[in-house]
Write a structure and sequence with these properties.
By secondary structure, this protein is α/β, with parallel strands linked by helices. It contains 7 helices and 7 strands; from the N terminus they run ααβαβαβαβααβββ. The chain has a 7-stranded mixed beta sheet, with helices on both faces. Strand 2, helix 4 and strand 3 form a beta-alpha-beta unit.
Amino acid sequence: VQPSLLKMKLQDQERHPFIRALGGGDGGVERIFDATLGLAADAMHAACVLGCEVIGTEANPVLYSLLEEGIARLAMGEPRIARIAPRCAEATAELALLPEGAVDVVMLDPMMVRPKRSTPSFLVLRDFARAERADAALLNEALRVARRRVVLKLGKGAPLPPGAPYPFPRVERGGAVSYWAHDKP
């Protein structure tokens, strides 16, 4: 767990496509559920820019142990990172434990099916992470728990999950990824 590109991303503040997808410019994003925490790069970005609490799940115990150590270490230099609360759990099961509307946003970043060029830390992540895509059960739980929106991060040009139970009509495009958003009425 390392800050990697965090310093560069923080320069964009609310203009960054990820923060725009979360609704950062709207205000009121106080609590996010990151269903695919990985090494917490997105969680750190959200916590630092929005000042929000981020609850995140990582199903792999090896990656979870890296998160526990890394978040605590990085929070010593950047206190906003301490707002990330990792849980060693499977995302769909953990979401099922939360009440309806428990968080403002549910963020999903499933492992990309086609590996792309990436940092060495991400290569380690790929070896341990679960590679399944966002399925209907996970998407339905995400929608139930999210008060404002569900955000799905996909590689540039990657298709939306087949059989998604609701549309993702809004997209914020980054250089290598797209952030698809389903805003609740």
